[in-house]
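Objective 1.3, modelling of assemblies. Example input:
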Amino acid sequence: MKKSDKKEKYQEVAYYPGCALEGSGHAYNRSTKALGEKLGLKLKEVDNWNCCGAMEVKNIDPKLQTYLSSRVMSTAANKMKMDVVMAPCNGCYHNLKKAEYDLENDQDSRDVVDRLSKKAGHETYQAGQVETIHALDWVKDTIGEEGLKERVKNSLEGIKIANYYGCMYTRPRHIFPEKDAGPGSESTSKPHFMDDLLDAAGAENVDFPLKTACCGGAHTLSDSDTSTRLVSNILQTAEAAGAEVIATECPTCHSGLEMHQIRAEKTLGIKTNVKIIYFTQLLGMALGLKPKKVGLHENVSDSFDFVKKKGLA
Amino acid sequence: MELSEIGQRLDTLIAQPPAPEDAPELLSLGEKTLEHWVIAKGREPTDDLREGFRLLALHRQGADKDPSFNACRETCRELVYHYNLLTLPSEQGPSGQQARMMAMVANHLFLFISGKMETEQLGVFCCASKPLRETVDVKGNAH
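Predicted structure (tokens):
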């Protein structure tokens, strides 16, 4: 699809916040909506949406996860007549993409989804009815770097940022056919969409080698020590790379980084000062939105003094 | 080299801090870490090269039938990337910062694999892994 076609197509999208954005990731929900409003992009929340199946269902019954994700896409396509679903959470985004792939390629998955959809009393989702995109695609393809540059009121100049994408945004490659598709597309080995957008808002992106490294998010409760050690290494590496801020684009990664930053100090005696802020919060403030408007007060870690010092508040 | 010794050596190198000359050792520590994972899965670590690196061949072997192991694929590739930065001729020459980053990446690979072995109950790291112990037990029982 041409970039100009995407620009048109993504102006109004079905918005699938997912469970995390209703709870621990509410700051991401708030800032995504505020950013969309500021940029003139319309979000129509998916009616009566359900959990995408997350890791828990997928590990026990992958086809049930496919069904759960397909129901979200079915509602968007058949009930709301939308052709794009935007999911800001890496887990939701990944699961909807996986469901799309399974329904395209696996007859058993199609059969299970059809049976459960009939039982639940809604139309069965057919592969290709909607396109699932991430919040990064949404901003990048509608407004883009040039559009952001024109709109920046409070430049992020002087802020050194390590962009952290987590491991689910690009993995596994085969469920993201639009990535690694030549110039302008996202890379699965070295993603750059967040870097591009924050650079356009004036930030200085540091060379961060762990941008897709695992943060141990899946084991944050079952094996907290492993998660703390992994997160602590990510935070220390970001600081060693010169970053003052880690920009995030996933609620699970974000809350994991925040909580294990505190836990690392308590259990390992390792203190790091790098701030953890959603990219939607950074872009929102760059466009002139107040910190509270983008939910900075809902983050676990306190970044108010930092953003004030940097002229964003 | 036991897994715990790899962790201790990485801690030492990071604290020094690491120098560009440490690049071969850091790459080797990455390989040794992956060997533990492969052995824990009951396989013989490969000596093959992939794209010129045993590290990448070992990662591929470790990810066989276990796609979740690909969560460290890019970490392995970053390790190779930094090794190349530090060892291939360049106008700027290698820097201490690049060596530091390579050590942090090697440490992440170590933390990921040691954590994964723990959560999958693949064994105590200072001795043989669970599958290997089970194999030994089965053989022992047979006698």
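The first strand of chain A starts at residue 12 and ends at 15.
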